[in-house]
Design brief:
By secondary structure, this protein is of the alpha+beta class. 26% of the residues lie in helices and 30% in strands. It has a five-stranded antiparallel sheet. Strands 4-5-8 form a three-stranded antiparallel sheet. Strand 2 and strand 3 (68-79) form a beta hairpin. The longest helix is centred in the N-terminal third of the chain and has 16 residues, at 26-41. The protein starts with 25 loop residues before the first helix and ends with a helix. The mean pLDDT is 96.
Length: 160
């Protein structure tokens, strides 16, 4: 496994739509392993392949319950609404307020090419939406209701 460099805002790769994965092989497994290791080292909750310079539909999410690997993910169901703070490993030091579904169900494939569905609520639902947006070339800042100042962030953190 290897740590991958996280691409920062301003790099064109973050604005491009990703292509589907068609080969479920050792290279895909290596990418997933590297992404998981990179995500954990960066203390993030999600990482999409374009954030490590790979234009493929691959996502890893870990909200503290172990990594969830999603290959060619698609949101098939969503309900409810949540509004709250959101950040991104590709936009370090910046935070915004977003509106996302409270509950999301995703259909995807695992590293071996087996289809499955996974549902999440709250933070997990937000992470699924955030990372799948990356696969479409969309950063959370493009859909944020507003960005948060460092002072406001400090105040929000103190109240939580």
């Amino acid at each position: 496994m290897a740590i991958r460099q996280i691409v920062k805002e301003g790099d064109d790769v973050l604005t491009k739509k990703c292509r589907e994965v068609v080969k479920f092989d050792d290279r895909l497994a290596m990418i997933l392993d590297d992404m998981t290791e990179t995500l954990h080292l960066a203390n993030g909750v999600g990482l999409a392949a374009p954030q490590v310079g790979i234009l493929r539909r691959i996502v890893v999410v870990d909200v503290g319950e172990g990594p969830i690997e999603l290959v060619n993910p698609v949101i098939i169901e969503q309900s409810g609404e949540q509004e709250g703070l959101e950040g991104c490993l590709s936009c370090p030091g910046e935070w915004g307020i977003t509106k996302r579904p409270m509950n999301v169900t995703v259909k995807a494939f695992d590293r071996k090419g087996k289809e499955f569905t996974v549902s999440g609520e709250g933070l997990l639902a937000k992470a699924f939406c955030h990372e799948l947006d990356h696969l479409e070339g969309v950063l959370y800042k493009q859909i944020a209701i507003r960005m948060v100042s460092p002072e406001e962030l400090e105040e929000i953190e103190e109240n939580n």
